[in-house]
């Protein structure tokens, strides 16, 4: 894959506003900084509309919901839509509770998303498919993830990225698979949430017609960074992997994307 967007992130240092969960806020901010973006974390309804005046990309992540936060998500999302700022949705653990499902329904009804990024269990739930989900983990199922990504992308007119051992990225018309990654990813919390924030940084420096390409590059860059981080480690050095991923997000370059990217178009 030829990199189109990574250098733009490092040149432009786009501000990325995150309404995210309490587990991952610090890790997501550090990952965005390492990549070359500028994180701002705030979920206060009193200020999220103002932030859109200077924002470049918005992340709405439902990992640890509270009712005032949902109000802030909808206000931030609608304001970002008015300002033509791309919005990324991470439907963390949506299948786990009725409140999460109701919140996702409201968000999808009120806010136009540029990208929905989640794991297989989360996207299967949004698509109304049977899946054995467990909390925030991907769970198990037999559904066709390519068909699910295409269907959700068409329904919400957005890019869908389903992460896992193979990532599936679709805008409904174009679909690609990213085979990079490492089994260490699901052993650290926040690796999916940071990927959603990284997707926001990539679409922030793209035109709307490039959102599919930008999301595909985001998933590829991120999965390669994980591979490179895991390479020198023993299989259970999860703490080292947590830190090494940040280092690799800072160090990764266009040549490595061309050399290591394993992407297929469906
Ligand atoms: N079994 C796996 N093997 C290789 N890479 C994986 C595996 N599971 C997830 N990944 C990678 O981990 C990153 C985070 O995705 P994922 O773990 O699916 O998110 P979440 O934390 O939201 O469940 C993605 O880059 C994905 O490609
Ligand atoms: C453990 C946990 N609980 C609520 S949100 C969260 C973090 C989930 O992060 P990720 O989906 O990136 O693993
Ligand atoms: Mg997740």
TrEMBL record:
Reaction(s) this enzyme catalyzes, per UniProt: 5-(2-hydroxyethyl)-4-methylthiazole + ATP = 4-methyl-5-(2-phosphooxyethyl)-thiazole + ADP + H(+)
InterPro entries attached to this UniProt entry: Hyethyz_kinase, Ribokinase-like
Cofactor(s) named in the record: Mg(2+)
The keyword Calcium is annotated on this UniProt entry: no
One GO biological process term: thiamine diphosphate biosynthetic process
Taxonomic lineage: Bacteria, Pseudomonadati, Pseudomonadota, Gammaproteobacteria, Pasteurellales
Pathway membership, UniProt: Cofactor biosynthesis; thiamine diphosphate biosynthesis; 4-methyl-5-(2-phosphoethyl)-thiazole from 5-(2-hydroxyethyl)-4-methylthiazole: step 1/1
Family to which this protein belongs: Belongs to the Thz kinase family.
A GO MF term: ATP binding
Gene3D superfamilies linked to this entry: 3.40.1190.20
HAMAP family named in the record: Thz_kinase
The keyword Transferase belongs to this UniProt entry's keyword annotation: yes
Organism in which the protein naturally occurs: Volucribacter amazonae
Coiled coil regions in record: none
Keywords (A to Z) from UniProt: ATP-binding, Kinase, Magnesium, Metal-binding, Nucleotide-binding, Thiamine biosynthesis, Transferase
Protein name: Hydroxyethylthiazole kinase
């Amino acid at each position: 894959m030829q990199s189109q967007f990574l250098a733009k992130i490092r040149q432009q240092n786009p501000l990325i506003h995150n309404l995210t969960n309490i587990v991952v806020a610090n890790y997501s901010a550090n990952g965005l900084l390492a990549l070359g973006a500028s994180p701002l974390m705030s979920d206060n309804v009193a200020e999220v509309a103002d932030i859109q005046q200077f924002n470049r990309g918005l992340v709405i992540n439902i990992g640890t919901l509270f009712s005032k936060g949902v109000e802030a998500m909808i206000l931030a999302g609608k304001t970002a839509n008015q300002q033509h700022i791309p919005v990324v949705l991470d439907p963390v653990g949506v299948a786990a509770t009725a409140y999460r499902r109701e919140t996702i329904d409201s968000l999808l009804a009120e806010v136009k998303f540029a990208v929905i990024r989640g794991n297989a269990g989360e996207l299967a739930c949004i698509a109304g498919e049977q899946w054995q989900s467990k909390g925030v983990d991907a769970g198990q199922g037999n559904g066709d993830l390519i068909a699910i990504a295409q269907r959700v992308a068409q329904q919400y007119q957005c890019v869908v990225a389903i992460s896992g051992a193979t990532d599936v990225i679709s805008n409904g018309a174009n679909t690609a698979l990213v085979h990079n990654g490492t089994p260490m990813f699901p052993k650290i919390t926040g690796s999916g949430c940071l990927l959603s924030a990284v997707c926001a940084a990539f679409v922030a420096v793209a035109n709307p017609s490039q959102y599919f390409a930008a999301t595909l590059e985001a998933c590829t860059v991120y999965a390669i960074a994980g591979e490179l981080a895991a390479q020198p480690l023993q299989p259970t050095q999860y703490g080292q992997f947590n830190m090494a991923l940040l280092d690799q997000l800072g160090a990764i370059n266009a040549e490595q994307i061309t050399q290591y990217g394993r992407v297929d178009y469906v």
